[in-house]
Predict the 3D structure of the following.
Amino acid sequence: MKKRRFALGLPFVLAAALILALGVSNGSARTQKHSAAIKAAWIYVGPHNDGGWSQSHDKGRLYVQSKLGSDVQTTFKENVPEGPQVAQVIEGLIRDGNKIIFATSFGFQGAMVAAAKKHPDVKFEMATGTAQSKNMAEYFGAGEDAIYLSGMAAGAATKKGVIGYVVPFAIPEVIRHANAFALGAQAMHPGVKVRLIWTNSWFSPDKETQAAQSLHTAGSDVLGQNVDSPAAGQYAEKKGIPWVGYDSDARKFAPKQWLTAAIYNWGPYYLRKTKAAMGGTWKTNFYYGNLKDKMVGLAPYGPKVTAKTKKAIATKRAALIKGTFYEFAGPLYDQKGKLRVPKGKRMSVKDLYGMTWLVKGVVGSAKG
């Protein structure tokens, strides 16, 4: 995984470009200076107000600040590239006295692992990661469940049976999300095709707009995404085609064409772990939130989602929570028709974290 910094009349894409031109930047929220307050920091790959992933995490940071008041000093670093600069950012945050650091992009993991070894007195929290240690925890949400439900909305909306899906990087996280979206769409529109275009960027409004345009020109009459900005939605609004967002409630960018979006509620987790760090009870963990604990969910529906579709989604959501339905239960076939998950078998979270193949009905390469 953002609009409040700019004048209301400034278009989003221009605003985002201005942010990126500034490079890595700081932000902080403090109710008052307090010598005993714990310092907690967040690192974002995009702008804190990107309209998607980073904004959802910053909303969680603000939740912590609102709940703990003067007992915490929160800060964030935004527009941090996934590369050598991450280590410098982390070291700077530690020098500033931050005792718990939340890194919110997969590409930050190497630097976080190294920093955790170097600074055993600091607590490290890695979103979407795959590495744990005594002072480094992993956390994520079962976004695939909510994405499946959002895919149902897309499947119900398409008339041509072709949906365009804008995706960032060809890593297991994104591949399983694309698969979940396609399976949800197929549940409402059997035989539907989901076409992928890779941007090779988490946040690039220009690339996302270009991808949306290419998908639309190629025949997609509904758009979805797993990228961070609402640029594809702005394109969809302009062209009059339904759009499914991701990460945050971004309906204001496409009020007529908005369907829904899979969203994350990071606040309660961030509050719990920050309080644990304050009280000396922090422990490492692999936390995978879900629909039941409300770490993942759906944004409000737009005007194009029918009562029939809402009912179908509600039924499937209840089944996911109860455990009577699972989108990655067999039989599941890949693009080439190979049986990947036999009938009666289910993919584990470990399997999902290693997913490198696309399900039947997805058009595009799993290699990016």
